[in-house]
Amino acid sequence: MFDFSGRRAVVMGGSRGIGRAIALGLAQAGARVAICARGQASLDATRAELGEGAFAAPCDLADAADIARFIPKAAAALGGIDTLVNNASGFGSEDDEEGWAASFQVDIMAIVRASHAAEPFLAEAAPRLQGGSSIVNVSSISALRAAARSLPYGAAKAAVDHYTMSQARVLGRKQIRVNGVAPGSIEFPGGRWEERRLEGSPVYQSVLASMPQGRLGVPEEVADVVLFLASPAARWVTGQTLAVDGGQLLGL
């Protein structure tokens, strides 16, 4: 649906699930893609799928120094950065110090740090791109309602939505658009929702029952919206976070 030929994209947390689908979607649309993640095996597997010209390196997104090292390496490998996708989560579910620390460091600060590191490259690329360069932040519908099962996660994602709006306001003068996607419950091999289904979790059945279309989403359905937001088709869209949930919020 979109042509990213000649564009350079960095996907943080791009080795599995939604991040992998976004990276593959960008590559299939013609972009050169760089990804990072902590798990070496999944990183290597996705790097192979991305094909020639892709770049992959390990990066702990809770570590500021790791992010500061990765972004310039990715820019050097790709020859610049036109699109940054911030896709990672510490999945802080427990309302305790550990849960809040994980959500703060990964869900919030990894986005801040990666965006700061990529900004000079995005600003340099923007004038030659129709619609400018772009950042897409991956949030969650947990930001849009009370999240009783995961207080830190929901609060962190709400902060991401607010930061997305503020980034768009600040970076617009540099021709950098900033938008977000808020996925609902997305199922993929090895992911949390698959684990719950296989365990026969009542939480899975409850969520499934709330879905208007009778199923959970898949990563590619989120990736398609990310590609739209990063493409010239969304050149007059900035500061928005789009729910990609198959109507899940309607049933809650």
From TrEMBL:
It comes from the Bacteria. One of its GO terms (molecular function) is oxidoreductase activity, acting on the CH-OH group of donors, NAD or NADP as acceptor. PROSITE patterns: ADH_SHORT. InterPro entries: NAD(P)-bd_dom_sf (IPR036291), Sc_DH/Rdtase_CS (IPR020904), SDR_fam (IPR002347). GO terms for biological process: fatty acid elongation. SUPFAM superfamilies: NAD(P)-binding Rossmann-fold domains. Belongs to the short-chain dehydrogenases/reductases (SDR) family. This is SDR family oxidoreductase. It comes from Teichococcus wenyumeiae. The lineage of its organism: Bacteria, Pseudomonadati, Pseudomonadota, Alphaproteobacteria, Acetobacterales.
